[in-house]
Amino acid sequence: MLVDDDATDRELFGEALQGNRPACTLTEAGNGVAALDALRAATQLPHLIVLDLNMPVMDGRETLRALRAEPAWKHIPVCILSTSSAHFDVRNAYDDGANLFLVKPLDFRSLQELATCLLALFGKYSGTV
């Protein structure tokens, strides 16, 4: 699952992911509220949530805390993917339960490499992200 308010970022991430594993299913949400609603309605939970920090309605920080507070979702790995590299954002994300914090790459090739790494780390045995 990719949670990001930027439609272009969601589209590019989807393309990078599909280039690595065409059969992988990507669920998208534009903010934390939409993500939590999608998780409540899901018949199969994602094997990884990639979460932006800065979003309207419910930002990534609030979303991460909500994910970690819910027993049914607590086990899902969460990777923060943000434009921020501020020390306090990184520290707070890990304190709130993030499994990984990455800075958004500036070019598509780097995004493809990032998607490859995420699939290697979290998607080896799954078809749902």
From TrEMBL:
InterPro entries: CheY-like_superfamily, Sig_transdc_resp-reg_receiver, TCS_response_regulator. It comes from the Bacteria. The modification 4-aspartylphosphate is found at residue 52. The keyword Phosphoprotein applies. Keywords: Phosphoprotein. SUPFAM superfamilies: CheY-like. Residues 1-119 form the Response regulatory domain. This is Response regulator. The lineage of its organism: Bacteria, Pseudomonadati, Bacteroidota, Chitinophagia, Chitinophagales.
